[in-house]
Structures are given as C-alpha cells and as structure tokens.
Design goal:
This is VOC family protein. By secondary structure, this protein is an alpha/beta fold. It is 18% helix and 39% strand. The chain has a 4-stranded mixed sheet with strand order 1-4-3-2, with helices on one face. It has a 4-stranded mixed sheet with strand order 5-8-7-6, covered by helices on one side.
Length: 132
Amino acid sequence: MRTTTDAFHLAIPARDLDEAYEFYVEGLGCKLARRYDDRITLDFFGDQVVCHLSDAWEREPELYPRHFGVTFRERDDWDRLLALVHQRKLCVFAEPSERFADKVEKHSTFVLRDPSNNLLEFKHYDDPRMMY
C-alpha cells in the first residue's frame, strides 16, 4: 500500500523542455529533479511528473477526459497557489469557480494550461471527506 514516502508518477508530453521548465519550475515553483535531452523530471507538489519531449502534444485541449492536478486539503494552500498564478501571470484555462454548490461535494477549482496544452486542475473541497 502507498505511504507518504511514495510518489505518484505521471508522464506527459512537452513540445519544448525549456518552456516546460519555465512553467513548472519558475512559474508553479516545482523542483527540478533531473534534466536530460529528451525529458525533465519534476517534484510536482510531492509527486513525480516527467515532461517528455514529444510531437504528440494536444493541439486543442479539452478538460475532459484528460487533466491532472492537486486537490488541496487546506484552503489556504489553494488560495496561495491561486495568488501565485495571478502574480506570475500563468495561463488560466478555466477561471476559479465553485462546483456543486448545494451538495456535500462542493469544491473550488481552477484550471491552468501549460505551454504544451496539458491541463492542470487545482481543487479544494469544503468537506475533506470528499477529496477522494
């Protein structure tokens, strides 16, 4: 079973590694773990994201069915990231909004678009039991 010392791994396409580095490291504040000619490996909020140099990046992204991101347990963390996004003028695909307002799974969300059109959703649920 996974523990807090394990990391989830996700590989995504990147049209340009310098652009990916700028977005993820300089923009979002992720840590660069490794860089090779064909990929960069990142500490993405405690998990591993690898941006692989590829021509197979999405030209016209849609949020569903493919996106990834972080569901924050603490609202302050979500708010801090949103402030950073505005400060660094990162590309917002979907502005902050509230979903399922009248239900127990009510949550706040916003979606970013990286330079290769990968979509990243960041969420916070009012009721932490709804995170999964």
